[in-house]
Amino acid sequence: MEILAFGVVSDEQPLLEEAFRERQLSVRCLEVFMNRDTAPLASGHEVVSVSVNADLDAEVLKILAAGGTRMIAQRATGFNNIALDTAAGLGMTVARVAAYSPHAVAEFAWALALAVNRHVARATRRTRDFDFRLDGLMGRDVHGRTVGVLGTGRIGEAFTRIAHGFGMRLLGWDVTPNPACAALGMEYVGLRRLLRDADLISLHVPLLPETHHLIGRAELREMKDDALLVNSSRGGLVDSEALVEELRLGRFSGVALDVYEAEAGLFFMDRSLDVVQDDVLARLMTFSNVLVTSHQAYFTRDAVGQILDTTVGNIEDYLAGRTNANVLVSPDST
């Protein structure tokens, strides 16, 4: 049996092929991402694997089911892109990667925070032109300042441990406090207080209906004018249009986004020769205090290796008629 893998980037492909080869499974890699246009390519493949930005709405799932696909192995943790009810109705099995290295995302979130705080991107652009002035490059020590961590699960905890190492005051917001974070001195507070008090705010919560635009217009206005905002979790957590409005008023020392709420069809692709159709993203990119990266926080050899190992395990379990904790929906669960 050949498994068809969609959305495989060049750095990932040798690792993916090796992971499948070691488990004696055949895989064919495609660069194209799963969506309504590419779903017919899966015809005749019982098992497909998809990347984090796959569009698995009801129509895509129906196309896949009609072509004989019975199992979808997503190489990601989030599943807000999958119409699970439709998958269940079609008798499909859908599995994800429930967890992988939290350090990959936490470390990258800190890389973003430090980069916008110390204007690294601007400095790099200047020095490439042999402009070595310091004008406009003054940052702030993070030591002694207050960090607000929204979501203190595995990634939020890893981020908090790094903040503790910097000697920061720790504020947290979560449904359930993390004892490990509390032991580091984190004070759990309400969202409004965290936004008002924090010098740096980092988002580490999943995208759910109740967290969509968690940072909206009202929340942005609660934040300090010189605050730093980092989002390495899910783009839909931040109201991008409201963020642009606040940035136009000259607010915030820096904003770093590794994710964007309308990133589908943009991120992971080369759009350098295209006319930009997304006015909000284009506007965000014009602000000198905004840094946008391409959903790469998870992209380390360690994390990708763990993701692929779990993905192959999910497929092996499906083929053997077993289930595991990564299965989101299966015929037996309907």
TrEMBL record:
A Pfam cross-reference name: 2-Hacid_dh_C
Keyword Transferase listed: no
Domain D-isomer specific 2-hydroxyacid dehydrogenase catalytic per the UniProt entry, residue ranges: 11-328
This protein's UniProt keywords: NAD, Oxidoreductase
Record flagged with keyword NAD: yes
SUPFAM superfamilies tied to this protein: Formate/glycerate dehydrogenase catalytic domain-like (SSF52283), NAD(P)-binding Rossmann-fold domains (SSF51735)
Top-rank lineage group of the source organism: Bacteria
Location of the D-isomer specific 2-hydroxyacid dehydrogenase NAD-binding domain: 111-297
Family the entry assigns: Belongs to the D-isomer specific 2-hydroxyacid dehydrogenase family.
Protein name as annotated: 2-hydroxyacid dehydrogenase
